[in-house]
């Protein structure tokens, strides 16, 4: 349930950001004024704040989820092993249920950790690409607008 809500929220943020980007491009092609850019900047910062708040809310939720999975795996393995020690290795429904629970929770925890790792790598690559190719603002190719230009004026 919580994963579905997270997916819906992320999909909504994605659609909103793509729509904002398309509208910005369309409006800038029509007329490029400081007031227009200021309005879109406000909207973009507002969307960014919403995304940060969403991330903070889900950080607590998923840290609790990970803790719950670790405890569930530990208790399931302990219960299965204590059942084996007490009654021998007989593949009872209790043992099998506890082993299935441990494997299921381990699989869910692995999928969650793997997706988190892949997302972290993508974000790191994105930041690295931005650092390697910084934005260059120029005045129709005549001069590049940067700090050196501002201090020389």
TrEMBL record:
Cross-referenced InterPro entries: 7TM_chemorcpt
Record's subcellular location: Cell membrane
- For the keyword Cell membrane, the answer is yes
GO CC annotation terms, alphabetical: plasma membrane
What is one Gene Ontology biological process annotated in the Swiss-Prot or TrEMBL record?
sensory perception of taste
Give the Pfam families listed for this entry: 7tm_7 (PF08395)
What protein is this chain from?
A: (apollo) hypothetical protein
């Amino acid at each position: 349930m919580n994963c579905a809500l997270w997916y819906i929220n992320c999909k909504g943020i994605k659609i909103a950001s793509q729509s904002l980007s398309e509208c910005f491009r369309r409006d800038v092609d029509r007329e490029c004024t400081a007031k227009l850019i200021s309005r879109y900047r406000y909207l973009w910062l507002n969307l960014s704040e919403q995304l940060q708040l969403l991330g903070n809310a889900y950080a607590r939720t998923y840290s609790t989820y990970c803790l719950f999975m670790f405890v569930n795996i530990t208790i399931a393995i302990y219960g299965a092993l204590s059942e084996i020690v007490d009654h021998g290795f007989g593949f009872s429904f209790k043992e099998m249920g506890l082993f299935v629970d441990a494997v299921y929770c381990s699989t869910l925890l692995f999928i969650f950790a793997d997706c988190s790792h892949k997302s972290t790598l993508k974000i790191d690559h994105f930041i690295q690409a931005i650092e390697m190719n910084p934005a260059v603002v120029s005045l129709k190719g005549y001069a590049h607008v940067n700090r050196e230009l501002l201090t020389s004026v």
